[in-house]
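Hi R.,

As promised, here are both runs. First protein below:
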Amino acid sequence: MRKNILVVDDSALMRRVECDIINSDSNLEATDYCRDGLEAYEKLKSKSYDGVVLDVNMPRMDGLQLLERLQKEGIKAKVVMVSSYTKKNSDITAAAKERGAIDFVTKPGNIIEAKGDEFKQYFLSVINSAFLRKTTVAPKTATVMPKVGAGKSLGRNKLIALACSTGGPKSLQQVIPSLPRNLDAPMILVQHMPVGFTKPMAERLNELSKVRVKEAEDGEKLEKGCVYVAPGGLHMEVACTPDGGHRIVLNDSIPAIGGLKPCANVTFDSLAKTAYDTVVCVVLTGMGADGTNGILSLARSKNVYVIAQDEESSIVYGMPKAIAETGIVDEIVPLDEVAKTITKNVGVK
């Protein structure tokens, strides 16, 4: 049976484009459309949809206001936001993901792009990931190696490397603000987002957190108690400095890997040549398996301690499931225990 999708956009042209793309997929059907958030709210009160494609800027009730209303009234909906690429809209979209939006699509700049094959494939890949994929858990006996409490020595010089994707921005708001100000390690963070969206996310997390959170800059030195977010459109690596420290390297020469830029595997691969005694690897909600190969490769040359989010608290149990199935994971924990587990393993200054 095809998934029934509600399209909400004040532009008749974009509604038609989005509906046509959705209906071109044999697994999807655009069964309803609305011109603004108020119309959508009335439909969602009485009817259930497998997914909602929601514009940000609309009259009467915009996308953010609709999400707030749905959240307040406990109305369940899987929502993918649609937003133009502007600083203002990237801020709004980041806020929307805090309120439960699963993912987002960047609107094309003109009608030619909107009707082009590139946008069609991009649009379908996002909504398929958000609305079609089912979550399954690996057998409990196969997910965790018996290493917890086994006296694993983590050393004194540690780095935290966190990877997440679909559902990440919302989940990060439960993790990063719960970290202590005097965390005894820096954190590098790869969240799959395009150009323009990672900076407002970092700024919002910084406002909510005790630790400092910022979008990473090329060449800056890593400091304990700071979270460095990989910029959208660039791979983030870590390199040693002559004084024994470490610095951020932003790499634009490597193409997108599996459509991902930044890619967590690139980040984890770079850590093999660092001077850290231990890398505490954290994998949260996300589509696919990014990070798994990088962590496995890193473990061949570096002491790693791997924390994965559990299935029940994951919005999409893809990336955590992939790393859990390898057997390398030290702890599988619910989202509300991730920060505590990180802190337990790196300590405070």
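And here is the second one, sequence first, then its structure tokens:
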Amino acid sequence: MQTEIRYVCSQDKAFWFGLDRHLPEAEFEKKVRDRQGYVLLENGEPQGILRWNLFWDNTPFCTMCHVDPRARRKGFGRRLTERWESDMRSQGYGMVLSSTQVDEDAQHFWRKLGYKDCGGLTVDVPGYEQPMELFLCKALQRERE
């Protein structure tokens, strides 16, 4: 089996929105343009995505890492995250962030990858209520030269 991770491109739109129901369409084209998204393919077939932006305009923040449910438990989420972390490290960033709701299992995924809890956000505005959003951070170690 051959696995490839590449930047998202416009041709990925249908697959992308099959997994990501939160990203507005206009933002998808920005992810393509700014290389702020990845697609993981296995034998040429897309299996997962990762998207990110800059939190506070200076800290890489993974806003979604999602693998097709039929392709889970194969290490694809880990590979997507490691690729993103490597790219962030090579761009000179020393720390990355992610988040998940406290009632979701994703927090365990992030902790297995070395992320630590670093805070939370509670939203109780009518119409926008949700369980607390747990923020996680990870220091990026410099690659040995």
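A quick note on the second one: The two ends are 30 Å apart (CA to CA). Let me know what you think.

Best,
J.
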